[in-house]
């Protein structure tokens, strides 16, 4: 069994050797050498080899003839091959000999092709590099020319397009490294130019605003000279468009390369046409910086910086000078700077996309408006010159109209102007107070003499006056009033004109203007003129003639009040009978002044009478006169003469005034004489003194009966002396029985005699009688008279007690 397995294993190994690649036969042979049947295997192997040799030999014998034929053919072919080889070698020699020139030409051609390829490559590279170099050269040129926005565009194109195409070259690397530095340089330079621009417009905002306000004023004058069309304020879309605005509107690049910020327009200002406010400013630094920062992706940074800087400048512009109120030029410079600031902001708003927006500009304007109003309220309060206030008002109106033309709301400014109107009115009142006082001080208080028709017409044209009787009189003649009347009337009209001037251009209706003028005129009449008239009446050394002339003057001014009403209605075009129209208080003002003058006349007359009465020197202990007639006292004769001359001047006064003055004088004389009788210092009065006083009273009654002033009916003026007359009659006639019997009856003869007065006078007579009869008390007549006086005194006391009960 073992030999069979060994034989099978050797057979397998042999088959494996026959069928396996010689490179992999090693493991098979190793298994033979590792086994114990090596010799047996070698035998098997030899037998297998011999077997294969026999098969090969059989095969060779089978194909031998063909092999011989093949060898024979091969030998023949070798000979032919030798011939062919010699021919080829010969041909090759000829070919090599003949191909040397071609080889040389081919080498030259190859070299040319290599050069051509190198040239093409070089041209291709240069095609990509030359634009880079040209663009970089253009960039340098733009940088030198300070054309930074085009330079930034060139830089962007160089970085994004040209350098990537050029490839990796050293100069490209240097350029790429310089690009961020150039961007920073452009950004910083643009910002520097913007700062210069901001500083420039800050310095020149005065000039910009002045030009804008000139435009507005020119437009106003043009509108006022044209038909009554609604006024269109000149503003950003005025008659002369700004070049920058035109460029922006047409889509042209606004980036002018002029960096001055303020253009020179001195020559233009000399011409009739005022340049546009924007013509003065070159906004290219703003546009350039905005575009540059936009390209750099820093637009927000630029917007914040610009707005912050402009806010700072706004605060500086809105800060008024401490002495601004001293001159109109100070206000004008202040307004010019503000207008210049907002003209620039408005132009930036409409020519840039979002650098500033409407909300930002409105916020700035609200801030400015509050500060402007506060500053004007403060500084205008220092002003006491109405002309300066009026000029300031016109300047504020022009300022408001200018900014309104640019779309800014200005209602607060007009509200403030209405507030200033009150201040203006007060300043006018102060000025007219001085004027009225000057007129009063310069007046001669005499009727105006006119010697020609021309003079007459001149005065009647200055103030309304019509007197048909006076016109019939021949020249020379006198107007009843003094220079005071036409001067005051003209000053009233001047005041009304001054009020009207302030009301112009305030966008008020005719009714509002009319009401404003009437209220101011009422203040002038009731406060200023009234005080001045009181000053004229109350001032020292004013005489009765002056007071009489004041009454005449105020009477004529009172009559002219309705002409003032018509004058105001004519200049305001508001009918005087309009509902709720304010009425002038001139009539009451002049009436009050006239009443004050009348009272002053009465007071002055009484004071003059008192001066005469102080000269009275009665002998209260005088004896009863004999048969001769007593003469009136000297002081009383002088007093009557004075009154006659005084009342003769009252012919031009209203009748009631003269009558009242005369009655008041007579009453004052009567009262004063009564007070002399009852003076506590006069302790004794004799019957002789009463007869002298009775004579003086008769002189007064004679004066009253003569009618020093026309208009009294009957003996009305005598009633002023009735109290004194009845008292003196009672004592001089010694009619006590009648007095005591009829006391209290309406028909009593001594109805005006007061028992208290009679008692006081009787006691003074009792004292006199007692002293005179000290040594004659034993005479029966004197004793009886003394008893009678005592009895009468007792009865009077009982009468007083009964009346009191």
From TrEMBL:
Domain Exocyst complex subunit EXOC6/Sec15 C-terminal: 412-764
Any one biological process term the GO annotation gives: Golgi to plasma membrane transport
Record keyword Transport present: yes
GO cellular component: exocyst; plasma membrane
Keywords attached to this entry: Exocytosis, Transport
Coiled coil: none
The keyword Transport is annotated on this UniProt entry: yes
Pfam family, one: EXOC6_Sec15_N
Recorded superkingdom: Eukaryota
InterPro entries with a match to the protein in the record: EXOC6/Sec15, EXOC6/Sec15_C, EXOC6/Sec15_C_dom1, EXOC6_Sec15_N, EXOC6PINT-1/Sec15/Tip20_C_dom2
Domain spans labelled Exocyst complex component EXOC6/Sec15 N-terminal: 44-213
Main function: Component of the exocyst complex involved in the docking of exocytic vesicles with fusion sites on the plasma membrane.
Annotated family: Belongs to the SEC15 family.
PANTHER family the record matches: EXOCYST COMPLEX COMPONENT 6B (PTHR12702:SF3), SEC15 (PTHR12702)
Protein known as: Exocyst complex component
């Amino acid at each position: 069994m073992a030999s069979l397995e060994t034989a099978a294993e050797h057979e397998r190994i042999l088959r494996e050797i026959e069928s396996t690649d010689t490179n992999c036969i090693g493991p098979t042979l190793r298994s033979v050498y590792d086994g114990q049947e090596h010799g047996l295997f070698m035998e098997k192997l030899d037998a297998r080899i011999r077997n294969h040799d026999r098969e090969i030999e059989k095969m060779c014998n089978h194909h031998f003839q063909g092999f011989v034929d093949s060898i024979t053919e091969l030998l023949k072919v070798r000979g032919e091959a030798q011939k062919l080889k010699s021919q080829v070698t010969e041909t090759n020699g000829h070919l090599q000999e003949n191909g040397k020139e071609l080889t040389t030409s081919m080498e030259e051609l190859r070299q040319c092709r290599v050069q051509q390829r190198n040239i093409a490559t070089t041209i291709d590279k240069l095609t990509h590099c030359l634009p880079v170099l040209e663009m970089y050269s253009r960039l340098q040129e733009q940088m030198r020319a300070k054309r930074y926005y085009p330079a930034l565009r060139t830089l962007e194109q160089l970085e994004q397009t040209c350098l990537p195409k050029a490839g990796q070259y050293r100069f490209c690397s240097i350029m790429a490294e310089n690009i961020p530095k150039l961007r920073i340089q452009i950004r910083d330079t643009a910002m520097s130019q913007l700062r210069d621009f901001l500083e420039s417009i800050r310095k020149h905002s005065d000039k910009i605003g002045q030009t804008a306000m000139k435009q507005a004023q020119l437009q106003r004058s043009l509108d006022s000279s044209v038909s009554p069309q609604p006024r269109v304020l000149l503003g950003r879309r005025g008659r002369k468009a700004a070049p920058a605005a035109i460029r922006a509107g047409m889509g042209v690049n606004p980036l002018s390369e002029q960096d001055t910020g303020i253009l020179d327009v001195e020559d233009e200002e000399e011409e009739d046409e005022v340049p546009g406010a924007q013509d003065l400013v070159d906004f290219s630094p703003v546009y350039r910086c905005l575009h540059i920062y936009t390209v750099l992706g820093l637009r927000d940074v630029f917007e914040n910086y610009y707005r912050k800087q402009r806010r700072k400048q706004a605060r500086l512009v809105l800060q008024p000078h401490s002495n601004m109120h001293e001159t109109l030029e100070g206000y004008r410079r202040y307004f010019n700077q503000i207008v210049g600031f907002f003209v620039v902001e408005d132009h930036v708003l409409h020519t840039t996309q979002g650098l500033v927006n409407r909300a930002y500009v409105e916020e700035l304007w609200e801030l400015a408006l509050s500060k402007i109003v506060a500053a004007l309220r403060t500084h205008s309060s220092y002003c006491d010159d109405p002309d300066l206030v009026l000029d300031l008002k016109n300047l504020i109106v022009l300022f408001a109209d200018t900014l309104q033309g640019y779309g800014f709301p200005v209602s607060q400014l007009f509200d403030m102007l209405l507030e200033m109107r009150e201040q203006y009115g007060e300043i006018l009142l102060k000025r007219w107070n001085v004027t009225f006082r000057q007129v009063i001080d310069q007046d001669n208080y005499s009727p105006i003499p006119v010697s020609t028709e021309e003079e007459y017409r001149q005065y009647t044209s200055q103030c309304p006056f019509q007197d048909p009787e006076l016109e019939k009189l021949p020249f020379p003649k006198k107007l009843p009033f003094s220079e005071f009347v036409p001067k005051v009337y003209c000053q009233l009209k001047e005041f009304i004109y001054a009020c009207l001037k302030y009301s112009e251009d305030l966008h008020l209706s005719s009714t509002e203007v009319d009401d404003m003028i009437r209220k101011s005129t009422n203040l002038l009449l009731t406060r200023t003129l009234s005080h001045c008239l009181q000053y004229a009446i109350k001032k020292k050394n004013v005489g009765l003639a002056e007071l009489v002339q004041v009454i005449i003057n105020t009477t004529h001014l009172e009559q002219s009040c309705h002409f003032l009403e018509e004058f105001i209605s004519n200049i305001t075009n508001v009918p005087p009978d309009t509902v709720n129209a304010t009425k002038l208080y001139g009539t009451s003002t002049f009436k009050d002044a006239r009443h004050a003058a009348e009272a002053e006349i009465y007071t002055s007359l009484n004071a003059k009478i008192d001066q005469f009465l102080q000269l009275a020197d009665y002998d209260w202990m005088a004896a009863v006169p004999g048969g001769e007639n007593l003469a009136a006292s000297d002081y009383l004769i002088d007093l009557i003469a004075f009154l006659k001359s005084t009342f003769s001047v009252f012919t031009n006064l209203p009748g009631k005034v003269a009558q009242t003055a005369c009655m008041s004088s007579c009453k004052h004389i009567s009262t004063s004489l009564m007070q002399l009788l009852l003076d506590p210092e006069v302790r004794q009065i004799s019957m002789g003194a009463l007869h002298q006083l009775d004579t003086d009273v008769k002189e007064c009654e004679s004066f009253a009966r003569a009618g020093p002033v026309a208009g009294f009916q009957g003996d009305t003026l005598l009633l002023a002396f009735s109290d004194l007359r009845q008292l003196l009659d009672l004592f001089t006639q010694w009619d006590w029985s009648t007095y005591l019997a009829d006391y209290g009856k309406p028909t009593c003869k001594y109805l005006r005699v007061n028992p208290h007065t009679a008692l006081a006078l009787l006691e003074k007579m009792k004292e006199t009688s007692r002293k005179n009869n000290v040594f004659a008390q034993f005479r029966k007549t004197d004793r009886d008279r003394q008893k009678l006086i005592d009895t009468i005194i007792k009865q009077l006391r009982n009468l007083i007690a009964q009346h009191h009960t």
